[in-house]
Amino acid sequence: MPDLRKWGIGSIEALLILVIAAMVVGLGATTSTFLTLPNLFDLLNQSAVNIIFAAGLLVVLIAGGIDISFAVGASVVQYLSALTVMRLGGGDWALGFLVAAGFGCLLGAINATIIYHFRIVSIVVTIATFNVFFGGLMFLTGGVSIYDLPDWWMNRVSLVSFKTSSGVAELALPVAVMAVMVVATWFLLRRTTIGRQLYAMGDNPEAARRVGVNMGAMHYVAFGWLGMMAGIAGLMQAHYVQEVVPNALYGRELDVLAAVVLGGARLGGGRGTILGAILGVLLTAITANGLNLLGISPYAFKMIIGAIILIAITLSSDGLAKLVGSRFTLPRAKVSS
Amino acid sequence: MKNSSPDRSVRSVVPLVQADVVGLLGFLAMVIVAMSFASDRFLTTGTFVSVAFQLPELGLFTLAMLMPLISGGFNLAVTFTANIAGLAMAWVLHSQGGADAGAGAIVLGTCAALATGAAAGWIMGAIIARTGASPILVSLSMMIFLRGLGEFLTHGGDISGFPPFVLKLGNGLMLGVPVPLWIFAGCAALWHVVMTRSRLGFATRMIGSNSEATRYSGIDTRRAVTRIYMLSGLMCGVAGVVMLASFNSVRVGHGEAFLLIAVLACFLGRVDPFGGFGRVVPVVIALVILQVIASGLNLLGANQHLATALWGVFLLAVMFLRWAWARGYFQSLVRRRATATGGVTQ
After folding, report:
1. Which one-letter DSSP state was computed for residue A321?
2. What is the ipTM of this complex?
3. CA distance B277 to chain A (A)
């Protein structure tokens, strides 16, 4: 296996930018609607929630874990937040963010506790919590949606809005929240000691532990951060569609995971950038949007995304990447048989 | 003399072959007793017939999951590989006359299903082996791809209209035992032989323990990993045929819920989550336990979503118990047993 490590982080992003640019040019040339402000702004509005999810998931992936429970966790947070703010007599945005982030952190902390204290592989834990969250939510709510959210939550907030020849172009609140969350995650990963420790833990947990990284705290930071992001993304998603549907986010985790991995994050930890994650989400969003505008069956979309990721893995995967968790195995005396 | 291993790590309980099987059988008995107290309709032949008919599907998925898990990997694509394999068979049957298709078409369709499953598994295995990418990631993207492919081909609908013999294959009895159960028993026996008697089985366990050391000791790990996933895909193909036959239809997404239970069965059956250890016999007993619980929950009229949540809780509970075991909360018990058996064999 040739050493592909020199094929560094920057080049994955450069490649993604090239692909996205090529797609934008191609779609701009073949369709009349793609390169219009309303369409581009809509694309951004719709991707905002996924980008917030992606920022959170990236932190967990960098720390060497994986989480597939965050999307249904966000549904649980939506429901709990809606019930809480209504119990507290309405509330406002500040309370909404506080409650959603708090419940999100709590769910993340549950995952972190099970993974760290009981030494269970994170994929197994999150498969289990995925089912507990989703099954529990559907059972306890009976699948009933909440439509009568407080006004502050439901009312559309538009940041930028102007008329163009092809309709009204509008940037909604989720985009601003997304920007804040992305900057916060970038700051955490790139400008704090905690961020360095997360990368260290993902790259080589044993070395990080010996250097003195507090492994337990890092687990709580990573999964808590993802939980918080998921909670806020859930808040934004409910704001955008103006209702809380218990199974609305079911299945979203795979889309986000696929996009983040496409953006260069490595399962097994230690690698990934926030820019790559955003580009990954944008690439999948533009693919979906483009296929839609080109009139290709929406059924083909997932197939194409799956194929893109498989090809991306085959072409660019790090030859030295280990099986997840294989480095945790203890050396054992082999019994000759 | 295997028991005289000097390895004092907790995993030295592994040689106690009989103990874990006996433990699982005891657990099975406990579950049956608990279920028959919970519902007076439980201890009837009807229940056990339904267990016998439903076990094979879950069982085939579990077997498909088993080898990748022992090799330290994962195969998240099992259910959708089975769906696609079922679609391949349905396509062959339909192109050969639908409900009037003859025996040749059924054989051809079965071969097509097995080949499709094996091909999907082979692609996964080749990518994992050649690039060293995480099996979770590769099987996940394979799952997304296969689900998309299936939805694209069927547009989310059912495909039915198969010859009556196919229905008999899925719902008939042979010597008083459901045909799918025969198929499952055959596959489980085959897997047992592969895992205990073949080079590949040995390589699978060694790769799960330490992939690099295995490679340095002269085993072609790339070929082995490719074959592990190909066999896993092949087993998904069998599951696809059995699902097609027993439901008399194919739908993409069918059997999705089995993924969790299949993982659960492997871990309950004492497969090491980090790879390297695991045997077929305890996993099959674990399967029977889970299927009895599933049928019991069904009989008690538990809500489907509640059942989903309970499976998740149950998986966590099993992992907690394993953790407690590994931490030595039962260590005094183990030590007593270990010395006892050690004394006997020596």
Report:
1. P
2. 0.79
3. 11
